[in-house]
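>> received
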Amino acid sequence: MPSVTVAAIKEISAAVHRQVAELGWRRKAPHLVRESAGVIHGIHFQASQFGSADRGTFTINLVVTEPRIYEAWIRRPLPANPATALYPVQQRIGRMSPSARDHWWDVSATTDLSVVQRDVLDLLSIAERDFFNQFRSLEDMLERLRQQGTLPGLHGRQGGVTRGLIAAILGCTAEAETVLRQEVASSTVPGFTYNIREAAKHVGIHV
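>> returned
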């Protein structure tokens, strides 16, 4: 028998899908995915590892990925369920709330899941406007990187590397070479330097 948390996620995911299917979302249980100009949007349900059979918590990750950029940096094919591919864009749904803080829902055998479902739908409606609408294509991601230097979920120098990789994929070769060479020159961690070179090679750039 599945835990209360797993069962709750399954029920809420199905109910949410019925409400958002008209926006292009498909259910790859328990997550939701849709395509937008070549990129993939994901709604990723994440259960806490610290629960019991009859009580637990879960949250939702908002995801935007694309096969070529994912494979270049992660060096693995895009997962069969793309909503689990948390690169290059990933943000917790709690950031869509007025407090902009991480949020986990508590669930147990007595939880009214219809209330949780309404909470999730309210936040997803905000995410449609304020999150997914910003990342409709690789071009959107590249422009965000040019302006702000990073994307939600990236850390440290990953922003520059990701900019270079996306630029290469989009045919902006001179920009890709310049940015990736700068990242190699700035890196002081041999393993990270190696990863940059391997990722660059994957998109046809030698640095």
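>> The chain has a mean pLDDT of 96.
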